[in-house]
Design a protein that fits this description.
This protein is α/β, with parallel strands linked by helices and 268 residues long. Helices cover 28% and strands 20% of the residues. It starts with a strand and ends in a 10-residue tail after the last helix. S-adenosylmethionine binds next to β8.
Length: 268
């Protein structure tokens, strides 16, 4: 199977048609949250129009269609995972219930819900709820023999003992503090604007790839966006596969991954 490759198209079609069953060790998925198209009512809004946190066509579904879409892509992921494979799915309160219900029905086991605390999250604009500052990542496994690289996670933990040794994981929890991607890591156009609204931090993805795969394993991302999963997998000597439906983001990911890298020699 070809790896270190980006497919342009719908992930459900490509997962069912182009990816071999029982072949992928780890899937990192950052799907649409069905959050767009819902404007926020702001008192004294002076932006000249409705305010949206994220407003992208790929992120707008009717509720029943969203549940159906969730069933289809998670079922397709289940088929291609190896017998002890892992599936990490990013979510918020908007879609966590649907993701967990669908995954459990398929027989996936939920091992952890990792909380990402966004240290630079948006201010409380509506003043009608508690301030949203977290996203979640559900870690599901197929079968009971999953990989968890405990030693690698101890190494990942920036906190060390007084004499510089790795610490036990008592103080490294299912919780990680990281800012929303900014600075040099953020993909920006010449006008300085972000090129993708939901680019994920590399450090977050590094945690999951280290924990649940080994060198040379295959890591697949069905919602590739800017290609963050590919970049981290490449750095950690894993093979990777990305799928992205939007031609603009597909080109962006290609540039990000193939820039300065001799990756065009796709392995088989
Ligand atoms: C939440 S973003 C992922 C961002 C990514 N994690 C990153 O760091 O850049 C979801 C991406 O999935 C893509 N997408 C939406 N529906 C898709 C589908 N059916 N098949 C493949 N890609 C899809 C969108 O175009 C978008 O780029």
């Amino acid at each position: 199977m070809k790896t270190n490759i980006i497919y342009l198209g719908d992930c459900i079609t490509i997962l069912n048609k182009d990816i071999e069953e029982n072949s992928v060790n780890l899937i990192i998925a950052d799907p649409p949250y069905n959050l767009s198209g819902k404007s926020l009512n702001l008192t004294n809004n002076q932006t000249g129009g409705a305010f949206y946190k994220v407003n992208e066509n790929w992120d707008i579904f009717k509720y029943d269609d969203y549940v159906e879409f969730t069933k289809e892509w998670i079922s397709a992921c289940y088929k291609i995972l190896v017998h002890n494979g892992s599936l990490y799915i990013s979510c918020t309160q908007h879609n966590i219930a649907e993701l967990i219900t669908v995954s459990k029905k398929l027989g996936l086991k939920l091992n952890n819900i990792i909380t990402w605390y966004k240290t630079n999250s948006m201010p409380n604009i509506t003043k009608r709820t508690f301030t949203h500052s977290t996203e979640f990542v559900c870690w599901f496994v197929k079968g009971s023999n999953w990989i968890f690289n405990y030693e690698a996670i101890k190494e990942f933990n920036p906190k060390k003992t007084k004499d510089g040794q790795k610490k036990q994981l008592r103080d490294f929890l299912d919780f990680i503090e990281l800012p929303i991607v900014q600075g040099r890591e953020r993909m920006r156009g010449e006008n300085g604007k972000s090129l993708h609204p939901t680019q994920k931090p590399e450090k977050l993805i590094e945690l999951f790839i280290l924990a649940s795969s080994n060198e040379n394993d295959i890591v697949l991302d069905p919602f590739f966006g800017t290609g963050t999963t590919g970049v981290v997998a490449q750095n950690l000597n894993r093979r990777w596969i990305g799928i992205e439906i939007n031609p603009t983001y597909y080109e962006l990911a290609k540039k990000r991954l193939y820039h300065n890298l001799e990756l065009f020699n796709v392995s088989n």
